[in-house]
Design a protein that fits this description.
There is one protein chain. The chain has 483 residues and is an alpha+beta fold. It has 13 helices and 19 strands. Helix 1 packs antiparallel against helix 12. The longest helix has 26 residues. The chain starts with a helix and ends in an 8-residue tail after the last helix.
């Protein structure tokens, strides 16, 4: 009797355990508890791992520059197609700790500056040197041409001076000069009349060991989705360069941090001061980086599409109504009037016209797409690559003989690949968090497995208990053959 009672108790316990485990799975009790803990811990607050990583990012960031060396300048001035040859990478280690960190509004906001320092890495650079000569478009010259082309007297004066000093549409300078600056002879003369125009030029001039302004971000204290979201830059909550309210919005983070518990169907917003605008990225695929699961987000084609494909981009047409084709962004309004146009490297995802206008363009997704691989649980960027190309707008201007018969085109100057991949120590921490989270999430299934095991034990003992009892003679056949 006691034996039967034990057996049936095991069966009842198995059923109860299975019911409880199914209820836990359906109600997602452990998942919700885990999410609540993550939301509470991943905030920008002194003493948290999230704040430490935000204030001083541990993974190494590298900035690689690739220049386009012009091979046929004389032919270009005659209206022929430019032929360029890519040179690079020229690699720099980028350091970007936060400084002047201050909390405000009951610790719901934090402000900081982010000075960036670039240190040349010879072993990761072609030729291990920065003094390689590059022949490219003379950006200071075309900027002055663009600025004064509608002023006949000034344009004649500037053109005459350019002729006397043999200053043309193209120039040869070293990589170091093009990046970090050199004293330009034309700018030096204009500077005497217009002190507001700097006599030095460089694509990253005054951008080494300096910051681009103060950022105010939300800490995530009130809403986990607001973690590191930018609400002010340079004291303003919106931009004023573009021609629509939507295009002037400051949205998202700086792409170094994201909120936790990211899903595949959400849109990730980013603010880029380099591009002078906000943009967004959508889910592309699942990946693994150093054993860490991640979601890859990429900017879709619509981000830089022309207004026929994406009418919302009309606000990026400057002046209003002056719209470029797909894949391009005119940033002259935020680059001191210089005719600078941004795109993806080699005009990736741009209209075919821009690719055909320059010989030497070979766009491909693997090398030229901007990517962000984010661990969905923690929101940590485990691998990223921001790939942006700097171009100059060229056209023939009658008042300046230096432009010759050049065709109207977008000329590629250089592109950058700002990349980061999580370091080994940080990767181990993230993998530990992911492992612990998986254990917690799977507790209901462990309980379910235990319930199934009890059920198997119950069935085995029930079968054994139903075996007939008695002596061998009693269990034998009723009729036996006579000997």
């Amino acid at each position: 009797m006691k034996k039967s009672c034990c057996i049936y108790s095991t069966g009842v316990l198995s059923l109860v355990v299975l019911i409880v485990s199914i209820a836990l799975v359906l109600s997602q009790v452990f998942q919700n508890a885990l999410n609540a803990r993550i939301k509470k811990e991943i905030i920008l607050k002194n003493g948290t791992d999230a704040f430490e990583a935000w204030e001083n990012p541990p993974p190494p960031v590298y900035m690689q520059f690739y220049f386009f060396d012009l091979r046929n300048p004389s032919e270009v001035l005659l209206g022929e197609t430019p032929f360029v040859e890519e040179k690079g990478p020229y690699t720099y280690r980028e350091f970007r700790p936060k400084e002047n960190v201050r909390f405000s509004d009951n610790d719901t906001k934090v402000s900081a500056t982010m000075p960036k320092t670039y240190v040349f890495v010879p072993e990761m650079s072609v030729g291990r040197r920065e003094d390689d000569p590059i022949r490219t478009v003379n950006v200071p010259a075309i900027t002055m041409i663009e600025k004064f082309k509608t002023h006949p007297s000034l344009s004649n004066l500037i053109s005459s001076y350019m002729k006397s000093q043999n200053i043309g549409l193209f120039v040869t300078r070293t990589v170091h000069e093009l990046l970090w600056g050199y004293k330009d002879p034309l700018l030096a003369v204009v500077h005497k009349v217009r002190p507001d125009i700097d006599e030095y030029f460089g694509l990253f001039y005054k951008m080494n060991t300096t910051d681009d302004g103060e950022y105010v971000v939300l800490t995530g204290e009130q809403d986990y989705k607001d973690f590191a979201r930018i609400v002010e830059w340079r004291g303003e909550s919106s931009l004023d360069w573009w021609t629509s309210e939507t295009c002037n919005m400051i949205n998202g983070t700086d792409a170094a941090s994201f909120h936790p518990l990211i899903t595949k169907n959400e849109t990730i917003y980013i603010f880029s001061s380099d591009l002078c605008r906000s943009l967004y990225a959508t889910f592309e695929k699942e990946v693994h980086v150093k054993g860490i699961p991640a979601y890859r987000f990429v900017p879709p084609k619509e981000v830089f599409a022309n207004i026929t494909v994406n009418p919302a981009n009309a606000g990026f047409c400057v002046p209003a109504g002056n719209c470029l084709g797909s894949g391009l962004l005119n940033v002259s309004v935020c680059k001191q009037g210089a005719p600078i146009i941004m795109s993806s490297p080699h005009f990736y995802q741009a209209d075919q016209k821009y690719i055909d206008d320059v010989a030497g363009m070979n766009p491909n997704k693997e090398d030229h797409q901007t990517i962000m691989d984010i661990n969905p649980l923690t929101g940590i960027l485990v691998r990223g690559a921001k790939r942006v190309q700097v171009n100059a707008f060229l056209e023939r201007i009658e008042a300046f003989s230096q432009t010759g018969n050049v065709s109207t085109l977008v000329f590629p100057v250089m592109y950058l690949n700002e990349s980061v991949e999580i370091d080994a120590e940080s990767a181990d921490k993230v993998k530990s968090v992911v492992y612990q989270a998986n254990v917690v999430i799977n507790i209901p299934f462990i309980i379910m497995a235990f319930g199934i095991l009890l059920g198997v034990i119950f069935i085995v003992f029930l079968c054994k208990n139903r075996e007939p009892e008695g002596t061998k003679e009693e269990q034998g056949p009723l009729l036996q053959a006579s000997s």
